[in-house]
Every structure is written in structure tokens, then in C-alpha cells.
Amino acid sequence: MTGRGCTVAGRAWPTLLPLLLAALVVAGFVPTAWSQSDACARPEPVCEARAAVFAVSSFDPAGSAVRLGPNRLVTARHVVADEQTVTVFLADGQEIEAQVVPSDYLGDLILLESDALPPGPSLTPKGIKPGAALFSVAADVGSRRIRAYRPGRLQLAPPPDRPLARLHHDAYSQPGNSGGALVDESGRLVGIVASGGEGRFEAIPAKAIFALSAHSGPDFASASAEIGTAVRICTLLLEEHRAPGGRLGDEEAKAIETACRRSGNRQLMDLAGQTLGRNGRAPAAISLFEQGLAEDPNAVNTRIGLAITHHLARDFEAALPHLRWLLDNGDDDLTVLRLAIHAGTWAGDEALARRALERLGEVNPESVPAARRFLNDPPSRPAKAL
Questions:
Q1: What is the CATH number of the domain that holds 194?
Q2: What sign does the CA torsion over 260, 232, 171, 100 have?
Q3: How would DSSP label each residue in 96-144?
Q4: What confidence tens digit (pLDDT) does each residue in 62-111 have?
Q5: Which end of the chain is more exposed for a tag (fewer CB within 10 A), N or C?
Q6: What is the tally of structural domains in the chain?
């Protein structure tokens, strides 16, 4: 997936593009029969899990959902926003309607119910096993198939004291997969696909479905509508200001900050922070990134966003802890390495700068001479932005 770019000292701002925003611009989404039984080269339990996954369409025209029981599904809330119904595409070409179950749960999950679901298998939420191979199983818009994508592994597990933190992994997913299943090689449901890009992917732990269920039902209709409306407004505003260039007015900036914060969706807050940051609104951007990081301290893209925003504000000391964390956790993003060289040099952490230079030599040797010249003979430090 491609990122939307602003630049930092001539470098692209990497983006973990949520599958919701990418799916909104998927061309040619035409409901047809969706196959759940084509040839599958994955482990048999993974292939069998496809029968419990469906293509769906709602606010986001292309999404996925996982069957949990005879008449119950789960999908990503951003697929639904504030819609009350979802179209579910069956393997035989039929379309049925599912009702959205209201919820005040702030994670990116929502339940669906439909008595028209035909008999079929369901998946049960399970915990993740250390070292297990992971597979995204979801709707492939291009082939009109429910696919099991190439496998990956868990990279960072959610801290036990952060209930909204996510599974960070490298099992491939793409637009239209939001709300699909993340399963292990035994076909156990360990997560719900949420977002991905640039080799970094996220899923909501499947056990969060139990918390979702406890916060779902008619009594939550008002709160659910407020959250869903915020998701809609935030998503549409971000789409409107997706392209770089142009400047945000004060009212537009405030609307983005308010709606995306109220959505409770960390990916939307990240994208809002990026949009505000590249428009010179560092305090608002930093506040959104910090809210997301408090929710999930393992959120790589949130930390990258914070590091870049502090760099843009020329507050290099504030960027250092995030750059150290990223290097400690093996992030080889070229922007991160270059920022670490700059911030480490200007903020007096030469060890960080030289560590980043060494890593740069491993992943992008042609960049080393210029980086070494900067470290050994740096230009004057830019003044901190007001």
C-alpha cells in the first residue's frame, strides 16, 4: 500500500494507511458472487476458516466480516461508521442485510446480526500462541474471493494493561480486508484485521470481542451513534485533505481534530495528526499522537508520527525517546534512521546518531556518505519553531 506523503527535510512521511481509507477509493467494487472454496495453498485449517468470512459493504463499500455464531458477525467499526445496516455477500451470489448492534466500545469493532445467514461454520475468539504463523483471511476485492493471504508472525503483543492495544504483525493484508479474520496455522481466530501498510499490519485481539459484546445492545444506541458519526466525519474530512499541498484553515483543522478524537479510532487519530502536522499545527498533532500512544505504546506509526512532528517543530529532544524506541524495536524505516541521525546530532545523543548510521549502512548503504558527512560536520541547529 502506498502512503500519502509530506516531506521532512526532503524525505517522505511514511504512512500506515488504514484499510478504511484505501477501501473508500477501491475502483470498480461491484457486488458479485464471492467464492469461499477456490484452491488454497495455506494449511488446511486456515483454508477452512474462509467459510466463516464474508465480504460486506456499508459506509466503507468494501470490507470483511467474521462469523461468530448462527446469526452473528463481527467487523471493523470503521466499515460501518454510523450506518445501521450492512450488506453481506454470500458465496452463492445472494446478498442479505445484517443489522448493526449498537455499542459504545471504543475499539474498532462492531457486531452485526442477521437471521438470514445460511448455516455454516463460525470462529471462536482465542488468545495468540507465541511464535505461531499468522494469516489474514478476508475479502479480496480484485478476485472476488475470500482469500488466505501470505503468512507472517507477531511482532509486538499488546501490553496487558492497555485494553485497546493491538496485535502488531507482518501477515499481509490489503484494502477490503478490514474486519476480516487473523488466524493462526490451526485456524484459531486470534484477531480482527484493522489496518496495514509498508510491511506493518495491525489486528484487534480477538478476545476484545468479549468486551465488545458486554458493551453492545439497544441501551448503547445513543453512544454508538455519536461514535459512528465521528468516524464518518473524520474519515470524510481526511479524504478531502488527503493530497499534500494546500493549507488547512482554522475551522477545518479544528473539525478534523475534534471528529477524529471523538471517533476513538487510533488509526484515524494518527492520520489526523499527520494531516495537522504537515500543515504546521504541531501542538494539535502531538496531542492526537500522544492520545494514541497512551492507548497502544507499541504503535509504531504513532511513534513515527510523533518523531516527525517534533522534527518539524525542531524540538529534537522531544523526538529522541521515540526514535530510541523505534531503533530498540528493530525499525529500519529510512525516515526513522535519518531522523535519528539528525535529532541525535542536534540534541546531543551522538550514540543514537551513530547507531542509526550503522543501521543505515545495513539497509541503504548508498545513503551512508551523506549521513556520515552530516554527523561529522553538522550544519547549525535550526531554531525551535514557535
A1: 2.40.10.120
A2: positive
A3: EEEEEEPB---SS-EEEE-TTPPS-----B-PPPTT-EEEEEEEETTTT
A4: 999 999 999 999 999 999 999 999 999 999 889 999 999 999 999 999 99
A5: C
A6: 1
